């Protein structure tokens, strides 16, 4: 390609780069592992630009030419941002299962009053919730699971071509299904602590009936916390393994990989 041909093709290449960044960059802002709140926004934007450089030759054949109308160009770009946020949000929901499970565990352990900043849930959260949120990020990054949503993002160009209307109904259904699966996963992860809390409370109730003179409340709180922390330490390895398996299955079920 000579200089004149390159200059003539440059506007089209720039428009393709903007389209790719709109979808890829929007997704990177919320993708598991890469789009964590702890990662500064400028680094996430840099990751999005790096993905554009790497993936633009792959997705460019399916990208449309630059439209003549500025309004049409803005519409297409906004649609791409919406698609990127939707795909990234579907993957993000599975990560929130760990944070929600941590909130449940904190409530069952009697640690719900110890609040710490938790960007995963927004505002303040409990210490166990924050612990499990960070553990989920470590699992996703250390096992390479973050690559599956990236592959789904590339494959999404065949499922949702650039410029096509966004399927709002199907998209909302997919998001609702992912949210339900995330909540179900959080309940499964917190199940051992639910069972332990039931056993402990039944035992304390029997103790209160058998020995009314015992101050059950003052005995229960430190014992519940100690037993809960011991149970958390014991089940943490299988809990992380169960999350990794569930996250892999959920990521492989993302649109474009089904």
UniProtKB/TrEMBL annotation:
InterPro entries: T3SS_IM_R (IPR002010)
Gene Ontology MF terms: methyltransferase activity
Membrane topology annotation: Multi-pass membrane protein
Compartmental location: Cell membrane
Record-annotated membrane-spanning stretches: 44-66, 78-111, 131-148, 189-210, 216-240
Pfam families, per database record: Bac_export_1
Keyword Cell membrane: yes
GO biological process, one term: methylation
Keyword entries, A-Z: Cell membrane, Cell projection, Cilium, Flagellum, Membrane, Methyltransferase, Transferase, Transmembrane, Transmembrane helix
Top-level taxon: Bacteria
Glycoprotein recorded as keyword: no
PANTHER family: FLAGELLAR BIOSYNTHETIC PROTEIN FLIR (PTHR30065)
Family: Belongs to the FliR/MopE/SpaR family.
Descriptive protein name: Flagellar biosynthetic protein FliR
Native source species: Roseomonas fluvialis
């Amino acid at each position: 390609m000579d200089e004149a041909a390159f200059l003539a093709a440059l506007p089209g290449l720039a428009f393709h780069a903007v389209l790719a960044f709109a979808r890829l960059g929007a997704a990177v802002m919320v993708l598991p592992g890469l789009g964590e709140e702890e990662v500064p926004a400028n680094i996430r934007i840099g990751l999005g630009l790096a993905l554009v450089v790497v993936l633009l030759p792959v997705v460019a054949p399916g990208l449309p030419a630059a439209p003549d109308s500025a309004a049409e160009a803005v519409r297409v770009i906004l649609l791409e941002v919406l698609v990127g946020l939707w795909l990234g949000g579907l993957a993000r929901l599975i990560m929130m299962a760990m944070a929600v499970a941590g909130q449940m565990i904190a409530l069952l352990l009697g640690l719900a009053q110890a609040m710490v900043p938790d960007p995963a849930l927004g505002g303040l959260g409990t210490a166990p919730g924050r612990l499990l949120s960070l553990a989920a990020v470590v699992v996703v990054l250390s096992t390479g699971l973050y690559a599956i949503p990236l592959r789904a993002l590339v494959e999404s160009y065949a499922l949702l071509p650039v410029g096509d209307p966004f399927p709002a109904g199907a998209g909302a259904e997919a998001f609702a299904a992912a949210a339900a699966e995330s909540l179900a996963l959080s309940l499964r992860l917190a199940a051992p602590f639910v069972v332990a809390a039931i056993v402990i409370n039944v035992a304390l109730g029997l103790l209160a009936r058998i020995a009314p003179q015992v101050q059950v409340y003052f005995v229960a709180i430190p014992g519940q916390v100690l037993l809960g922390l011991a149970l958390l330490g014991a089940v943490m390895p299988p809990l992380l393994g169960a999350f990794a398996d569930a996250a892999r299955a959920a990521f492989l079920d993302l649109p474009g990989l089904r």
